[in-house]
Design a protein that fits this description.
Largest sheet: 5 strands, mixed
CATH superfamily of the largest domain: Periplasmic binding protein-like II
Strand order of the largest sheet: 5-1-6-15-7
Structural class: alpha/beta
Strand content: 15-25%
Radius of gyration: 19 Å
Helix content: 25-40%
Shape: globular
Distance between the termini: 17 Å
CATH architecture of the largest domain: 3-Layer(aba) Sandwich
Length: about 300
Amino acid sequence: MKNRFKKVLAVAMASCMTMAIFAGCGGSETATSSAGSTGSSDKKVLRVGMECTYAPFNWTQSSESMPDGEKAVKIYGQNTYAYGYDVMVAQKIAKELDMDVEVHKVEWDSIGLGLDSQEYDCIIAGMGKTAVRAKSYSFTEPYYYRDNCIVVRADSDIASVTGLSQLKGKNVKITTQLGTGWVDLLDQIPDGVLGSNYETTGEAFMAVSNGVADVVVIDVPTAESALLTNKDLKLIKLDENDTFKNDQEMTNVCIATRKNDTELRDKIQGAMDKIGWNDKTKMDELMEKAIAAQPAAN
């Protein structure tokens, strides 16, 4: 995790940024891409920022080895490793570009600051492309399409609902992860009571398990991942005629570079095009693999 000193330094370097939207100020406009610096091998390095706490998109584990013979990526400056859908996609892109992947573990609320201060070259972290973020960062085309859902306690009186309208009058307490597009969807739940939002999705799920909240607004793969180790929870895929409106910004998961670094953005996009990473079937298959590979601790 980035320590407090680095956070203060990053804020000073990008003082006109707001963490809620990960916005960059003039400093990032003149920054140049550092992608291409060489690591311990002769290959150039693609430095990637991600939480490493957002299974199945990314998580932290103690070993490099995976059951299927694949390799996790050592987290920069740590003795642990990162894996998950984001890491697998980063590996595919880096292979096409003949580069190595270097994962930087960073808290979600400062992930934009780290990019602007050039601690890494891009963000591959399950980030939805929003209109606000697009003002400050350059984005590739989606590398994953996700659906949104709600998660409740399996033994609750709302476990049988199939649409948002059925929550009217129930005054359910709602939660999600801080600094995400899901926050903007919370007010679409009829008579919902805003509770605390949390730094990680894991904390949000725990709030429902413990009865602190009634509903988590989240994406389907993250919910499916959580249910592997939280048997007391239930995922509800809402009826298409009774679900969130205008939630497309949270369905398009894209790779972000600094706003002026369109060269790297286009380089990454070119690699995605060459490996055919615009095929939803391929995306879903890889996500299923990521969910299955997830350690129980995540």
